[in-house]
Amino acid sequence: MSVDPDTLRDELLRFVRELSESNVAVPANGALAAARALDAVERFEEAQVRAALRATLVTREADLEPFDRLFSVFWTRVTGEGSPAYADGRLSDDVRPETGVSASIGGTDPNASEVGDDRASGGSAAGAGATVTPGSNDADADATTAQYSPAGSPDEFSADAVAVRDTARVEAAVRAFTRAVADLPGRRWQQSGRGRPDTRAALRRSLSAGGAPLPLPEQSRKETAAKGIVLVDVSQSVLDTVDRGFLLQFVAALRREWRRTRVFFFDTDVREVSTAFDAPSIAAAVRELEAAQTEWGGGTRIGHALAEVRDTYPDAVDWATTAVVVSDGLERGELDELEGAMAWLSRRASRVLWLNPLAVSERYEPTARGMATALPFVDGLYGFAGPDDLERVAAELAQYGPRTELAARGGRA
């Protein structure tokens, strides 16, 4: 059976979202794992696809019933084959997600903008993100939209949208990541028993000794404790590929493990949220974000956000700072602004590590216009969608140091 790749990608993301809305315990990297499973299916037939998605998206026996109920709708959307649950182009009440979010299809969001060349940056069904527009046949119906656009429809933080899992594993992965970053040599030099010749020190010593020959001093890069700035893209395209609970756990653990680390969330604008992650738990941090009316899930203007950090918070970055950017690199703003902001960040920080949810796919190449513009200013580019990815990042940093070749991506497709 021939299936349009764009339709499959969009509907897979939509299916995963509807499972989560129906309280199915979808794994943190469920969409990406499901895309990989579909790539491995020999024949695109209903039984094989159902088995592949069930194996990657269902972790509890209690979730089998809602999975089967929603899979029939997913299959109809993808193949166009008729189904009683899909009569007249909309979901019947018995298969609608339990959260009350409109999940009917057929219309489009009048605010949606064209995706353009960013759609092709990945390769697998979930590897490129998607424009996901559950619209309605009725003009007045609500719609939930994930799009790459300068102006999205952000929502305020809510504890209902965050599920915390694998806390111990996430914290262990962050500790390994912290050790790897702290062990990286900095930009400043120190006297060392081994390293490169320190010709300036040798000249000073020789002159002070009246020109007498002296042992040649050496110097090496100074190791520093992990200090950083964390810049997190919370646009809808990122939230469609990274579990929100894992993302918040990662940020909270970095804030706790690193010293003097500031945290910024951005989509079309940027806001500092550092103090929210001083809360004793993720639930408490979410309450802090709610109280501050923090929003996420809007459009994407990476360059504008980084330029705002440069202009408004210049002291957040210095020579000892490791800049961690979490973003899919799908830019809908001005590339000149992104290039200028990244050039500043690269000059100012000790290093720039870019964690990209799309890069967990072996088919991913950093060719989307935003990622391609940022890449020359990035020291390390890594896939990032769950704890296992963070463990691989830590191991690769410890063994090889920062690099952008995307050599180790866990064998995902």
Describe this structure as you would to a colleague:
The protein starts with a helix and ends in a 13-residue tail after the last helix. The relative contact order is 0.13. The protein contains 13 helices and 11 strands. A hairpin with a 3-residue loop joins strand 6 and strand 7 (270-272). It is globular. By secondary structure, the chain is α/β, with parallel strands linked by helices. Helix 1 packs across helix 2 (30-40). Residues 83-152 and 219-224 have low confidence and may be disordered. The strands form 3 sheets. Strands 7-6-5-9-10-11 form a 6-stranded mixed β-sheet. The chain has a 3-stranded antiparallel β-sheet with strand order 2-4-3, with no helix packed on it.
